[in-house]
């Protein structure tokens, strides 16, 4: 069951239930890092929805699932137990937090995320978590499809070149050898795919606040978001 917060918009609203803050935007816009730090500043949970999709993709990859075969997908989902704890995700008890970040699983995730059964499965889990506790959640359809009534919604944007540089640096830090040009090429393809998905397409919610992150540090972006959250929901109920 979805939480029932008041509609996001101008003005201040005191909390009457779990606070849901959504951060959407294209791949490489810095959503995960910003969402994690914002949640920490607010004293609430960070929910990495992308990791949930990646974990399902990893499971499907291991089992050789044909994502176009609904029966195979249904059996896969029935066998899965996902547990998200801080910045770690567990698949049937196994910590797969690092395994899901490889380029191979990134490509597999793009295919898995197009499957309505997968999205329905994970959206139900995400809403169940939000019904129990306040959280910051990020993805591409959190403010439009998953939590349309979230109190505060953000849409982060950055140039393709800047996003590719960020992703390339992430790969380098993890010891993954991949050319910047390849990262940029795949990111542009991902942008095209994400905007055209039949279910859960990347789209800015009408009431989302757009934040341009080019030239801003993570902490600067978090400061901007925090001010907006405070102006929307007041300060009495926040973690700070």
Automatic annotation (TrEMBL):
Catalytic class of the enzyme: transferase
CDD domains with a match to the protein in the record: CMPK (cd02020)
Reaction(s) this enzyme catalyzes, per UniProt: CMP + ATP = CDP + ADP; dCMP + ATP = dCDP + ADP
An annotated GO BP: nucleobase-containing small molecule interconversion
CC terms in the record's Gene Ontology section: cytosol
Extent of Polar residues compositional bias: 1-13
Binding residue positions for ATP: 25-33
Swiss-Prot/TrEMBL keywords: ATP-binding, Cytoplasm, Kinase, Nucleotide-binding, Transferase
Presence of the UniProt keyword Transmembrane in the record: no
Coiled coil stretches, renumbered: none
GO molecular function, one term: CMP kinase activity
Pfam entry (one): Cytidylate_kin
Chain positions covered by the region annotation Disordered: 1-22
Subcellular location: Cytoplasm
Cytidylate kinase domain sequence ranges: 21-230
EC code: 2.7.4.25
Family: Belongs to the cytidylate kinase family. Type 1 subfamily.
NCBIfam families: cmk (TIGR00017)
Protein name, UniProt field: Cytidylate kinase
Organism: Thermogutta terrifontis
